[in-house]
Batch of 2 targets.
Target 1
Amino acid sequence: MIDEAIECLRRTRPSVLGAYTASMVPSERGPEGTMASEMVKVYDLLLFGAAANYDIQDGADRIRSTKDLALLFFRALEVFQPDLFVEAGAKDGGSSRRARRRLKGARIVAFEANPYTYDRFRERNEKADIEYVHLAVSDKPGSVTFNVRMSPDGKPVADGRGALTKRADYEHGYMEVSVSSTSLDVFFAGDEFKECALWMDVEGAAQQLFEGAANVLSRTAIAMVEVEDHSFWPGGWLSFDVVRHLHEAGLVPVARDFQAKYQYNIVFVREPLLNNDRFRWFLAKYHSEGGRKIDGNEGVEDASGPVARSRLWLQRKLARSHS
C-alpha cells in the first residue's frame, strides 16, 4: 500500500513526494513503527491536494472548505447508517441534531463539559431527542478541572471553547470549575451498538479522549476530528499523533478542510468501508468539486468557489474584448 501511494505521488504531485522524502529523517525510521509512521506521512501529504479547490488565504473559502467536509461526513452517515452517534465538545449540539435527521433510529449522545454552555442548550437538545450530557470526556471516570473562558467583562462564556488545558494566548483568562468526567469506553460499556460515528471537537484533549476509547474506536465507522499543527494547548496531541493513533485503530484519513492556519478537521473512515461504492462516489465528488456544492442540490453552482470565480473572470474579459 505504501509503494502504491508513493507511486501515485510520483505521477501526480512530485513536489509533495519531495517534501515527504525530505521529512523522513533517520531518527524517525527506527525498527519500531516505521511502516505506520511512513504511511501516516503519505496520508497527511495527500490530503493537502484538496487545497486546490479553495483559496485558503480567503476566510470565506476556508469556511466553505469546512462546510464541504461536513457535507461529506453527513453524506457518509446516510450511507453507513451507524446505530450510535457521539459528539464530544458538543457546544450547542448542532452536529447531533443534524445527525438525528439522518439517523432516525440511532442513539445520539452529545457531551458538553462547560456548565454554562450545557445550561444554555440543554432544553433545545432534549426536545430534539438528543442525550445531551454534562460530562467531560477523558481517559477515565472521575472529576477534572475544566477551564471556562472569561469574557472581557469578567463573566464566564457559554461557548464551545472551554478546555481541560488553558490556552496561553487567551488574554481574558479562565474560570476553573470541577466537572465529572467519563471515558467513552466506560460510558458505553453496556451499549451493544454495532457501529458508531464520532464528531470530536475537544480543544486539545484528543489524547485523553482516544486513550479512553479503544473499544469504541474498534467499532467506529466514521469520525470527524478537529486537530492542530500548533501546540495551542501545552502537551496536547498534534495532528500527526491523532492520525497515527486512529490509523492503528483501523481508521483511514480520507479528507480534510482548511478551517484555520494551524487548526482543521479530518474525516476518518474504517478501512473496509472504503470499498463502499456510494461512499467512494461521494469522496470522489468531494475531491473534484472545485466550486460546486456536494449537498442535495448537486450541480448547483457556488458563486463563491474558485471555479465560479474563474468563469466570471473569463466572462468579464470576453465582454470587455467585444465592447
Target 2
Amino acid sequence: MIELQGVSKIYYSRNRESYAVGDVSFKVEKGEFVSIVGPSGCGKSTLLNMVASFMEPTSGSIHVMGKPVAAGHIPDGLGYIFQKDTVLPWFTVARNIGLGLRFRGLPDAEIASRVNHLLALANLQGCQDLFPHHLSGGMRQRVALLMTLACEPQILLLDEPFGALDSNTKMVLHKELLDIWDQLGQTILMVTHDLDEAVTLSDRVIVLSAPPSRVVLDHRVGLGRPRDVFSLRQSREFGDHVREIWGVLGREFQQARQEALEHAA
C-alpha cells in the first residue's frame, strides 16, 4: 500500500545543506499498522508529509497503492490525522464529522446514517449536537479521527495524534482506535515519540537513525490481536519488545544529542 525507495529530503540555505531525511526505504502492506519512531529532527513527520504529497522528496520515490506520489496531488483513498485536532469550533460534532461527505455532495440521509454509525464506533453517542468547546481533548481527537474516517480512506497517516493527551486518555483512545481499525481494516502509518504507544498499537515499529536519517531497525511486534491495551503493558512479551527496540532507539537518541552538542560548540 505504501512503498518508499531511497527517499531523502534536503533543505538548502546559503551556507549549508540540512537533511530532514537521509536515505529511507520501507514498505507497508495492506491492513498493516506500522509506527515510525526516532530522535527529534530525523524527519518522521516529513516522511508522512511526503507520502501525503504535501512536499516533494529531494531524491527517491514514493508509491501509494502502486501509483507514484506527485507533489501537490493527494493520493486517492488517503486520510491524515494531524498532531492538533482539526475540528471546526463553529460546527457541532455531527456537522464536523459529516463535513467531508457534504463536500462530496452525499444526500443528508446518507450523511446522517454514516455519522451515527461512526459516533457509535467511537462511543460518542449523544454528543452529536455538542460543540467542540464542550468536549475534552480526548473527545475532540476522536471527532477529528471520525472526520477522516467518514470519507472511508483506505490508508490513514497519523502524526502523533495522541501526543498532547494525558496517559489515561491516551490508553482509552488506543483501545478505541484499535477497535475501529479491527472493524474497518485501514492501512495505518503512524509517527510517535512514545515507544510504549508504538508497541501497543503496531504490527511493526520502524526506527530511524539520528540525522541524516535511515532505517536502523524494522521490528515486527509479535503480539496477538485483538489486544487489551490496559493489561498488555504488564506482560513479559510487551516488555521484551520495548527493550529490544529501545536498545537501538536509545543509541540513536544519544548520538543525536552528542551531535547537537558538537554543533552548538
